[in-house]
Amino acid sequence: MDEDLDIKIGLEVHVQLTALKTKLFCKCSANYRGMPPNTLTCPVCLGHPGALPVLNKKAVEYAIMVALALNSSISPQMLFFRKNYFYVDLPKNFQISQYDKAGGVPLSVGGWVEFSVNGEKKRVRIRRIQLEEDPARLVYPGTITTAPYTLVDFNRAGVALLEIVTEPDIKTPEEAYFFLQKLRSILEHLGVSSENMQGSMRCDANISIKGGARVEIKNISSFKDVYRALQYEIIRQKQQLKHGIATVQETRHWDEDRQITVSLRVKETESDYRYFPEPDLVPVRISEEWIKKIAAQMPELPDARKERFISEYKITEYDATVLTSNKKLADFFEECCKLYPNPKKLANWIMGDLLRNLNETGLDVTQLAITVEQFVDLLKMIDEGIISAKIAKRILREAVRTGKPPRKIVEDEGLLKIDDEEFIAKIVDEVFREFPKAVEDAKKDRRAVNFLVGQVMRKTRGRADPNITNKMILSRLEGK
Amino acid sequence: MHLNRLSCHQLVGKIKTQEVTAVDVVEQVFERIKRVESKIRAFISTFKDDALRRAEAVDKKIKRGEEVGPLAGIPVAIKDNICTRGKLTTCGSKILSNYFPPYDATVIERIEAAGGIVIGKTNMDEFAMGNSTETSFFGCTHNPWDLTRVPGGSSGGSAAALASDETILALGSDTGGSIRCPASFCSVVGLKPTYGLVSRYGLVSYANSLEQIGPMAKDVVDCAILLSVIAGHDPRDSTSAPYPPHDYAKNLRCDIKGIKVGVPKEFFGEGLDEKVEKVVMDSIGVLEDLGASCSETSISYLDYAIPTYYLIAMSEASSNLARFDGLRYGFRAECDGDWNEVFSTTRGEGFGEEVKRRILLGTFALSAGYYDKYYLKALKVRTLIKREFEKALSKFDVLVTPTMPILPFKIGEMIEDPLVMYMIDIDTAPVNLAGVPSISVPCGFVDGLPVGLQIIGGFFEEEKILRVAYAFQEQTGFHLKKPEI
Q1: Which is it for the CA torsion B150, B154, B157, B160, positive or negative?
Q2: What pTM was computed for the model?
Q3: Is the four-CA dihedral B387, B388, B394, B400 of positive or negative sign?
Q4: Which ipTM score applies to this complex?
Q5: Which residues on A lie below 8 Å from B83 (Cβ)?
Q6: A-B interface: how many C-beta pairs under 8 angstroms?
Q7: What is the bridge-based pairing of β-strands B169-174 and B212-217?
Q8: Which residues contact B327 (CB under 8 A, 6 or more apart)?
Q9: For A47-61, what is each residue's pLDDT tens digit?
Q10: For A86-120, what is each residue's pLDDT tens digit?
């Protein structure tokens, strides 16, 4: 995108540590999705008078894991701060969070994430990583603008969030998208956060153009929407520049339905959060030993896995990058490799037809109806000459959508490849009778043969073995 | 025999040997409440039926020969900022005037496990902000020694209930002197424990980094018994020290010969009532008679203690009290409008004047641009003051000072002048900044009004200050004198 615009984008990513069973400061279940409203609460997460927070140690361990994976320097001592502001979703009217000013120490500072954009390596620096509690969820009957009242569900209140803040190193919406993909893959490989949980990753994006004021877009819930929101913002701000209107520092809301950003508040009225150290929580010491212990238990990360894929399965760097961009996809590939000897062919089919089908249906790998065994079976049927590659594509499409095993589809629909020479000869006869002109053409110009082959295929709905068909047509043309 | 006039250590033996029943004790306490409460107004709520049921259960247990705890059948009055499950907990505020907590504070669980019986919730300055119990939404408690005077604050209800024999034991909370001030004004014993010794889980926070729940009693032995029940580590409070249970009453009877007593001269300066000073000086003489060696010492930076204390307390309060918005519990104002309006109207109507003053000042002190100038600086001064106490307490076993620089004042006399009122915390608030323990014991009377002696010890040296207090009490007997009501 426009180099001369000097676009600076920084992201604040909020990740729910979905692997945690309990909330950040109490023992309530953190698994709130699909639960009846206000059933997973206690005096602590409802902010009842007198209730005190107690830190979930596992949350700190997960956070340390993420910090290590993002090359961030972990603070030897971590403090919690209060961020004070009045809002209906905030039970205590302050959020227990961390802060990097006024004597505050976040979990970690610095670090980077490396990823590829169209084959080019890109590095985005991390500013800090911190732990904080999630507010409650607001439910609007109807839409946010028309609802006559607001309902509050406190089940989510107090759930552990990791806030990952980048430096403004991102230049395009595309880079933002790939950065988030990579970050997600790392988190999934660590096993701390699960992609397929709705809203487990939320994003605020800061963007400035040509050194202009910084605009913050709040609460974007999907990567695609981050891409779209940034694209929209760039166009909007570019238009303003063109008309000589200065961009104001403000917070904007991404309206998913209308696919536009709308202004929430301008800087002048932005709240003063009155940060100060949380007196109810003592500083957490993070010893070298503790970090070492956690580092020793870290699972394989996407980059290491990519290198391993290249050396172990002899696939291209591009293929390995795509496959490891998503843990579930990489797992699927590796499971297939155990059952099928040709990793290159597996990679092609997974990245080509399988991903295409997933994209079309809007499913992710975990929701895939086809199993590793069935997928491998499909490829084996091609190898064994039972079905053609073309038919295999069709079967895969159906299997992905219906969950029917490929072999069953082949049997039920009579899609087995026709290699019966007598049968093919009969069809070839028919075609030669019906298209005498084409036969004459083909005798003079071999390039017209394809038309005749195509007609045989049409009559057999693609089931005729193309090799046999081709051979048969050629020998007939030569009058044999 | 008026059972309600006895102490816990006198009663527990009688209850355990079935000389009297717990039901008798509870009934007599409630008879006393019925007789004098209209004059004293120590309680916001009482739970007679529940208390009698619990007393019956204790009696049955004793009859069956089962083990009962050290507070078996003993009535305990609880300051109304400590949560009691299903029982009204108001903090002396309109905003919580209809609040029934869904859980018990850790100290309540421990008292009940020890056989103690919660008889009611006592009056207090709204959200523990004050030292006269005049800022309560439920009206002022009257000092049993002179009904026209304040009982001190903010645990004024607990102290007055003890002094008028409406209870046997009581709990208070102390942020800047809120246990010791009313103990002094009502001639009872009150102890502010080391920060972290007693769990704050269930204590409605005013200024978390300063406050502690503490025992209040008619004598030092009872104070030690109640402390033994409530002290000790609680995993639900992150600031709770990993301190094992301890029997503070066990070694009280040791003598105090050779104990080194420091008398910090800064506590005897301007603002100290001459008559109070005389009583306190006499008390130091008593300690010397008992074999203690008393000498003058000094605590620097004390001039900054009051501003430091109020900056920290108000800042923390502004944040702690933000949760009272009428959304999830408590009082909600009737008004039309969006949630912003509901929040503001509820808080506007629900909080009293002193609470609003402190929230506003605290909000200001924490605001961007002022944080470094006020709050952060206050934390630094606090560290200096803490070091001063540590230094003095490394040279002396205990420090002795007046608890309050003045005598109990008339109701309404000082309420219009908050700054003057803040200054009377001068002897108690520095102790909260330091986090060390301190006890107030009755040490005499001036014109029929009580004076308290403050004994301060090093971290977790509750046993030592209790021992000095006990020796003093046994020598003087001021705790035995009762007001006439």
Answers
A1: negative
A2: 0.89
A3: negative
A4: 0.94
A5: 48-50
A6: 105
A7: antiparallel
A8: A88, A152, B339, B342, B343
A9: 999 999 999 999 999
A10: 999 999 999 999 988 778 889 999 999 999 888 88
